[in-house]
Amino acid sequence: MNWYPWLNGPYRQLVGQYADGRGHHALLLHAATGNGDDALAYGLSRWLICQQRNGEKSCGECHSCRLMLAGNHPDYHVLAPEKGKSSLGIEPIRQVIETLYAHAQQGGAKVIWLPQAEQLTEAAANALLKTLEEPPEKTYFLLGCREPSRLMATLRSRCLYWHLASPDEQLSLQWLGRQAAGSQTDRLTALRLHDGAPLAAEQLLQPQQWQQRSTLCAALSAALPQRDMLSLLPVLNHEDVAERLHWLCALLVDAMKWQQGAHQYVLNQDQQPLVHQLASLLSSASLQQIVQQWLNCRHQLLSVVGVNRELLLTEQLLRWEQMLGAAGYSHPHSL
């Protein structure tokens, strides 16, 4: 498991609480994707399970540490959905609870790491809730989440909430400079497109992913003068459509910022000519309407089972053309 410099502070604070006897048996770790919450949870788990702690560090030498490093410690449990499933049902929860009420096999702490608590079914959450209320001795639950509002209120209330914020932008840029190719402007753009999460930015900066975004931006720039928004269909209609629509909406929101003179807050720093182009062609009200329509489209694509992706995208692109036409522009498609 890799470690990241921006986790040092949060790690010391959390370990300090447990070392002082103030640590909570159930920690709800709220973090955006790409901020390294899994590494933080693993580091904390290693410290909790270590039998010969060296201050705020795990020793790395005791039997428990060696088992953790080998990835087969019997008292460390990671709960995630089975491959191909998006939810975590009650059976894995029941199994781990039964294990918890037995004595710890290594005679120390027992740790359960649930990377995305939102994936719990209602039945699984209720089963976990009972154990959170009266946990076995020296048992610690670490629950990761992206959106705490999606968790049951009763589950949240049993946990100590901890927000892992995105690191300082300059610190992240320095780290990205050592990890990823591209210019400083590219790195700043990737970082801002992911709410400052360095690992997500690093992923976007991978050559293939970055090229896909560049292709979308070029297609949009070419489509606008012709009012031929339907030409965007081939670059949007892919398995990662949610990510591509995120890029598109970010450009549209940036155009609204541009109109207000807030150029320094633009996310797409590498696409300022395109942002200016959008800001010049569309009113703020039109941009806001288009963004809302695309967000609704994205939500449907993510939440409706069996939705016809191509049809939904086509419908939205034609709406965009109609809006341009209503504003006095001509376009090549007959509606």
From TrEMBL:
Organism annotation: Serratia nevei
InterPro entries registered for this protein in UniProt: DNA_pol3_clamp-load_cplx_C, DNA_pol_HolB, DNA_pol_III_delta_C, DNA_Rep/Repair_Clamp_Loader, HolB_lid-gammaproteobact, P-loop_NTPase
Species lineage: Bacteria, Pseudomonadati, Pseudomonadota, Gammaproteobacteria, Enterobacterales
Biological-process GO terms, alphabetical: DNA-templated DNA replication
Keywords, alphabetical: DNA replication, DNA-directed DNA polymerase, Nucleotidyltransferase, Transferase
Keyword Transmembrane among record annotations: no
UniProt GO cellular component terms: DNA polymerase III complex
Alphabetized GO MF terms: 3'-5' exonuclease activity; DNA binding; DNA-directed DNA polymerase activity
Catalysed reactions, semicolon-separated: DNA(n) + a 2'-deoxyribonucleoside 5'-triphosphate = DNA(n+1) + diphosphate
Residue ranges occupied by any DNA polymerase III subunit delta' AAA+ ATPase lid domain in the UniProt entry: 167-206
Residue runs in coiled coils: none
Protein name: DNA polymerase III subunit delta'
Span of domain DNA polymerase III delta subunit C-terminal: 208-322
Superkingdom field: Bacteria
Keyword Acetylation: no
The protein's enzyme class: transferase
Pfam families: DNA_pol3_delta2, DNApol3-delta_C, HolB_lid
SUPFAM superfamilies (alphabetical): P-loop containing nucleoside triphosphate hydrolases, post-AAA+ oligomerization domain-like
EC number, UniProt record: 2.7.7.7
Designated gene of the protein: holB
